[in-house]
Amino acid sequence: EVSTEDPETAFCTLANREDLNPEEGSIYHCLYQFTRNEKLTETNKLLCDVCTQRHYGPKKNIKSEKKYVYTNAKKQMLISLAPPILTLHLKRFQQAGFNLRKVNRHIKFPEVIDLAPFCTVKCKNVAEGNTKVLYSLYGVVEHSGTMRSGHYTAYAKMRSMNNHLSDLVLQGQSPQALETEPVKGQWFHISDTHVQAVSASKVLSSQAYLLFYERLL
Which Pfam families match (predicted)? Predict the structure, then answer.
């Protein structure tokens, strides 16, 4: 979806990105890189309909002559609607010549994550004045092995039902009050039919492949 935005706010976020200073090798650093401001120049210039019409006239003349104007531009992907459930999928492979190689590097991730530095300042379901969009970790999928073979296991938190979150999912109600602490509960490690209670520190040291967060309300 392309929309005309005020240039003064088009690249603004709910919280100042420059204050984040994310640690390399962390999920914050991954999100910071994924949502960074990109300059589109040279062969990546943007086809500008407004510039084309200004230069060649109405569109009906442009199509027949196939003339277009490309211009330098800036691009940034930001979150415009904060989801009730946040799923982060880490790219755990890289190209090595003609082969794919698994990335085994540990990526640090917190129990509570703030998406505000990655949300547009006009994020649709964030109450006016809120500068935090917090999520609590409740599930992790981990993969062990190589690109050719391996084993998937999971960590899941058993916790009480969040009625406010259910309202957000079912009715789209925006939260007015914020909780800042992770949802309380017991973590479990699941591997096939084996289930074992584990500590939060064990979960946070895992080699995450998928991360599941629920919004704090």
Answer: UCH
